[in-house]
Amino acid sequence: MTRSTIEGFRLWPGRLGPGAQAALLDQVLAAMAEAPPYRPITPGGKPMSVEMTNLGPLGWVTDARGYRYAPRHPLTGEPWPPIPQALLDLWAELADAAAPPDACLVNLYREGARMGLHQDRDEADFSFPVLSISLGDTAVFRLGGLKRSDPTVSLRLASGDVCLLGGPARLAHHGIDRVIAGSSRLVPGGGRLNLTLRRAAAAL
Ligand code: MD6
Ligand code: FE
Q1: Does the C-beta of 165 come closer than 6 Å to ligand 1?
Q2: What confidence score (pLDDT) does residue 3 get?
Q3: Which ligand approaches the C-alpha of residue 178 most closely?
Q4: Which fold would CATH assign to domain 2-198?
Q5: How many whole angstroms from 130 Cα to the centroid of ligand 1?
Q6: Residue 134 CA: which ligand 1 atom is closest?
Q7: How far is CA 6 from CA 41, 148, 161, 167, 197, in A?
């Protein structure tokens, strides 16, 4: 049986071709040299298995004080590197032409990393979508509904795939069950990078 996904979820398989993936990867790796990925601590005190960093004026962080957006890297104290123009262009085309994203969370999945079912709800205005770009190894993505107990579907996100949570799907639960190690050779050292573009602060 095929269950359809929630309205407002969109998937563009292979939206970025091999050349665009390689160019974007170079820019993200250069940014990661300035703003190194680290394992954040949940408010409950557990280190996440995913490593994170951010691009843009604001970045999503978590620690004992909770989840929030912050203008600086918590370990280096430096502002986050800028969001590459290619990502700003992709947002303008697929997400929202009027207001640019002000945050891009970079998730790095090395061997065994995963991300539990969650909602993205630390942003000021849920009328803006979240746009996701995947690079490297294929992820098994789980997408549910507004309630944690709603039924879920399992989808694969491969390198170059772009997806969007907007409209009624903006607050849908979702997570990464696992990453298929060795399914791509894009990321040096192996693994998966996911970039999520957001509008964290209220628009002007
Ligand atoms: C990931 N993605 O793909 C995790 N959030 O590594 C997300 O948490 C996500 O794919 C909001 C919108 C789209 C997403
Ligand atoms: Fe998310």
Answers
A1: yes
A2: 60
A3: 1
A4: Jelly Rolls (2.60.120)
A5: 8
A6: 3
A7: 30, 14, 18, 10, 20
What value does the mean pLDDT of the chain take?
Answer: 97
Q: 175 C-alpha vs ligand 1 centroid, how far in Å?
A: 7
pLDDT at 7 over 80: yes
Q: Which tokens belong to 116?
A: 């539990």
Q: How far apart are CA 188 and CA 165, in angstroms?
A: 28
**How is residue 22 written in tokens?**
């390689």
Residue (of 128, 178, 130, 172) closest to 157 by Cα position: 178
Q: What are the sequence ranges of the domains in the chain?
A: 2-198
CB of 132 closer than 6 A to ligand 1? yes
Q: Residue 1: its pLDDT value, please?
A: 46
Instruction: Return the ligand 1 atom nearest residue 109 CA.
Output: 6
**Tokens linked to 58:** 């604001």
58 lines ligand 1 (CB under 6 A): no
Is the pLDDT at 2 greater than 80? The verdict is no
Question: How confident is the model at residue 96, as a pLDDT?
Answer: 87
| Cα 182 to Cα 187: distance, rounded to the nearest angstrom | 10
Q: Is the pTM here over 0.70, yes or no?
A: yes
Which listed ligand is nearest to 135 at the C-alpha?
1
Q: Is the pLDDT of residue 92 over 70?
A: yes
Report the share of the chain in percent with pLDDT over 70.
99
- Longest CA–CA span in the chain (Å) reads 50
Phi-psi region of 199 (alpha: psi -120 to 50; beta: other; left: phi over 0): beta
Give the mean model confidence (pLDDT) for residues 65-71.
98
